[in-house]
Amino acid sequence: MTAGITIVGLGPGDPTWITRQAWQILGSASEVYLRTARHEAASSLPVGPHYTSFDELYEHNESLTDVYALIAERIVHLGQREQGVIYAVPGHPLAAETSVQLIRKMASAVPLQVHIIGGLSLMDAAVQLLEIDPYAGLQIAECANVARLNHPNLDPDVPALIMQVGNRHLAGQLKLTLMNLYPDEQPIQVITALGTRSAQVKQLQLYELDRLEAVDHLTAVYIPALAQQGSLASHQNVVARLRAPDGCPWDREQTHQSLRTHLLEETYEVLDALDADDMTRLREELGDLLLQIMLHAQIATEDGDFKLVETVQANISKLVRRHPHVFGDTVVSGSEDVLRNWEQIKRQERNDQTKSLLDGISRALPSLSQAMEIQRRVARVGFDWPNAEQVMAKVREELQEWQAAESPEHHASELGDLLFSVVNLARWFELDAESALRETNKRFAQRFSYLEQHAAQMGKAVEELDAVEMDNLWEQAKSVEEQE
Predict the structure, then answer these.
(1) Closest Cα to residue 9, out of 100, 106, 78?
(2) What is the pLDDT of the chain when averaged over all its residues?
(3) Nearest to 404 by CA among 386, 417, 423, 385
(4) Angstrom distance (rounded) from CA 41 to CA 120
(5) What is the third-level CATH fold of 232-303?
(6) How far apart, in whole angstroms, are the C-alpha atoms of residue 365 and residue 373?
């Protein structure tokens, strides 16, 4: 041997899975360093070399990061000897082996040559047990990398294999993360003692994942694809198919401008579902709204303007940048600080202090919503009334000014001021003026429908009712409404 590092993969555990090349290199060596001797193949390695493991480091260091760094430093040091060093690791050296990644990085700085002798990985063992074809589509991830997320970065329409579950606590974290994407009853397969002759596959449902007694680094979880497609990628593929040359004639004819009305209509449908607190309908209406977004993104893709992924990338960057109190070191005392920081960051992004804080508010918004957004923005920079009493006083003042108006033009102007101050009052009481008025419209329509129906039962048209009859029926309608 000459100076340098030879890293050998020992396979997943069963010694019969060690490759011939790895066996020959190990058998001809005088000394071999093992990341761990706690590996099923370790007791069956070729006789002759002196084997030294780093298991003692695991016992004296709580942090695996520290353990891997110490191993890497030691191997790189040994590799600089005239005879070099042979380092053996479980599985394949390039598959989820942090120590190997560190060794390669440190060795390149020396510089020192590193030879990789591959081996079967735990993934190979899992694929054989599950009898699946990874080339048909398979996502592979380490448990710790998925469990630390609030939402899994997986495509539910593609099977996933989660390796090295580690322990029940980590299994519990993994379960909670996965349940943000998959149904609680999602069927899964859990492999225990993976890579050994004792390996077993258990059929479970996702919510049962952390109820297993024996969970360790040789535990893996296989999640089949959803029975029905549900990923954004699949959604965009359907939309792209509709827009394809042999797709739907109507969808192919649509443009950004022709879809404007549909986008607005679907937005109001979502708002109606929210007003009704109807979660089943909200799920459906959000899907209809998402279709509009996907159509616009697909048209932009076809025109070469931008791709959906660019929109998502920009939005992720914006969210991270505008939440330094979550993704950075900024400290805030409450939501008011958050909103103030948000506006400051937006001005920095625009890099133009001459632009108005109100630039960017959509002119297509309904007037009440537009007024609310204007007031929210200026309030973030301190342009606001000190208390609700002064806001109510402003409403009374605007009402008096409207009453004193002497011309239609003056009345219209003062009415706008009155409505603007009423919206401000709603904001102070954390109410949405647009939603409140829409709910009132709905109640009025229901009450008037009641009046119409009961007038018909009296054999009269609404216009034939006198004032007393109308008032009585209206009060009845309100009473019925209150009892529902």
Answers:
(1) 100
(2) 90
(3) 417
(4) 12
(5) Helix Hairpins (1.10.287)
(6) 10
Predicted confidence (pLDDT) at residue 352 exceeds the cutoff of 60: no
Amino acid at 326: V
Looking at residues 114-130, what average pLDDT do you find? 93
**CATH number of the domain at 5-120, please?**
3.40.1010.10
The length of the chain, given as a count of residues: 484
For the chain, which residues make up each domain, given as ranges?
A: 5-120, 124-223, 232-303, 434-483
Token pair in block for residue 136? 């048909």
pLDDT at 155: 96
How remote is the C-alpha of 21 from its chain's centroid? 44
CATH class of the domain defined by 124-223: alpha beta
Give the residue ranges of DSSP H helices in 304-432. Answer: 308-321, 324-327, 335-350, 367-380, 388-404, 408-428
**Of the candidates 39, 32, 38, 31, the residue with the CA atom closest to the CA atom of residue 8:** 32
What is the separation of C-alpha 258 from the centre of its chain, rounded to a whole number of angstroms?
A: 31
CA-to-CA dists, residue 364 to 294, 311, 371, 426, 437, angstroms:
20, 21, 12, 21, 18
Cα–Cα distance, 311 to 86 (Å, whole number) = 48
- Of 208, 192, 209, the C-alpha closest to 200 is 192
Q: Which two tokens stand for residue 135?
A: 């080339």
Q: Say if residues 147 and 118 touch (Cβ distance below 8 Å).
A: no
Res. 405 pLDDT band, cuts 50 70 90: confident
Q: Answer for the pair 30, 1: CB distance below 8 angstroms, yes or no.
A: no
Cα separation of 293 and 290, whole Å? 5
354, pLDDT greater than 60: no
Name the more confident of 483 and 307.
307
Give CA–CA dist 307/432, Å, rounded. Answer: 34
Q: Which of 118-122, 341-345, 399-403, 478-482 has the lowest mean pLDDT?
A: 341-345
